[in-house]
Write a structure and sequence with these properties.
By secondary structure, this protein is mainly β. The chain is built from two helices and 21 strands.
Length: 421
């Protein structure tokens, strides 16, 4: 692997940087198309349509070799990737004038936002000399250089070798709403409903071809985890092929499946603007909302933890603890998988109904002074974080599994060529 590190510009250790590059970013591919159509069917019915398509390829900065997107070995550059974005937006607005005192508006919207980190050059890890047993664990369709971090040589993107891990993400939303307004006497009544489906389709392979961390541990004077700055070197450990045993510097590889998450939102409202007299107007209303919680298209995540669940570990007995005053008991507890054994299919426990009453008043004291006041309760929708294979922040993210390399301290027994024997 180390052969893919660029050679120094000056082969001399004089205390100065011996490799300098200015990244040449070729960012010349941006396109956007937008169109709008308006049609009036009759004096009372009209339709407006809007469509937008945006296409960009946004490269990161490369620093290996020619320091641009044409470098043959850019698959090993820690900052090599292109962010490909292809958002599409569709909006339809239909207005009906039902009478001289009422109007109905119907709206529909749909957004797709592919937001993908892509590698710019494929690489077959089988060419690096890994054992066949390790290569058999990898996805044969995922052609990428493994990520390598060598302590002291990781100032660039927190890694030494290996392009960014790619992602496939498509942010999606579909919405439809209706608003009815009618004027009669001193009142203007407004009624409406709102539906939204908000979600994201994703595949996050993570460290599917391995992430390997080397520090000065096994080449230091003691061969142990330490902060000795005078002996040992991460590059020397890398050349020996001994990933660190430091529990703070984990090596791992990931096995991932797609995760397609979404939530439904429903809302309805009623409001009345009452012109009490020429100086005073009162408005009041209520909005009712419901969110379903987060679901996954194929139920590929966990939705909770059941402390009473039994598992293969339930045959193990925990001894009594006289100090704590607890009796002997069997191991219980386990994850709840979406839709399995009566488990719910959504994460979280949102309120069934979120009520938002609102009231406001306007009083005109004279032609120069107006007093306004109001009160309302508003509910913010839950803000879901983006999925992460390292954080596993959606239970088991798409049934993702991170396998950590287990190294023996002081005397290493695991080598890079067969990291998971």
């Amino acid at each position: 692997m180390i052969a893919y590190l660029p050679l120094p510009d000056t082969n001399l250790d004089n205390g100065n940087a011996n490799y300098n590059r200015t990244s040449l970013i070729n960012n010349k591919f941006e396109q956007e198309y937008a169109g709008k159509v308006e049609h009036k069917f009759t004096d009372k019915v009209s339709l407006t349509g809007f469509y937008l398509y945006n296409r960009t390829d946004e490269p990161c900065q490369n620093y290996f070799g020619t320091a641009d997107q044409t470098e043959p070995n850019r698959f090993a550059d820690p900052l090599d990737y292109i962010l490909k974005r292809r958002p599409q937006v569709l909006a339809l607005n239909n207005t009906w004038v039902l009478s001289d005192s009422s109007v109905l508006a119907l709206r529909f919207g749909k957004t797709n936002f592919p937001d993908n980190n892509t590698i710019t050059a494929a690489f077959d890890p089988a060419t690096l000399g890994f054992s066949q047993s390790y290569l058999a664990l990898l996805n044969p369709d995922f052609k990428k250089f493994p990520q390598v971090r060598v302590t002291g040589y990781d100032a660039l993107a927190g890694r030494t070798l290996g392009a960014i891990n790619p992602t496939e993400i498509n942010w999606k939303s579909t919405s439809a709403n209706a608003a009815y307004s009618r004027f009669f006497g001193t009142h203007t009544v407004k009624l409406g409903g709102d539906f939204r489906k908000i979600g994201m389709d994703s595949f996050l392979p993570g460290d599917s071809n391995g992430y390997f961390w080397f520090d000065n541990e096994f080449t230091s004077a003691t061969g142990a985890n330490n902060s000795d700055a005078t002996s040992g070197n991460g590059i020397a450990s890398f050349l020996l092929g001994y990933p660190t045993a430091n529990s703070n510097n984990l090596s791992q590889f990931s096995i991932s499946t797609p995760l397609n998450i979404f939530t439904y939102y429903y809302g309805g409202y009623a409001q009345d603007d009452w012109r009490v007299n020429s100086k005073f107007t009162l408005n009041y209303g209520v909005r009712l909302e419901h969110e379903t919680g987060l679901a996954e298209q194929n139920n590929n995540f966990t939705v909770g933890f059941d402390p009473a669940a039994t598992s293969a570990l339930s045959s193990i007995t925990i001894p009594a603890d006289p100090v704590a005053g607890t009796a002997a008991r069997n191991v219980t507890g386990g994850l709840m998988y979406a839709g399995v054994n009566g488990a719910p299919t959504t994460q979280g426990n949102p309120p069934k109904v979120k009520a938002s009453p609102r009231i406001g008043a306007v009083y005109s004291m004279n032609s120069n002074t107006v007093l306004r006041g109001g009160y309302g309760i508003y509910w913010a929708p839950y803000n879901y974080p983006a999925p992460s294979t390292s954080l596993s922040n959606y239970g088991q993210v798409g049934f993702t599994q991170n396998t950590v390399l287990t190294q023996t301290p002081v005397t290493p027994t695991v080598t890079l060529d067969n990291p998971y024997p």
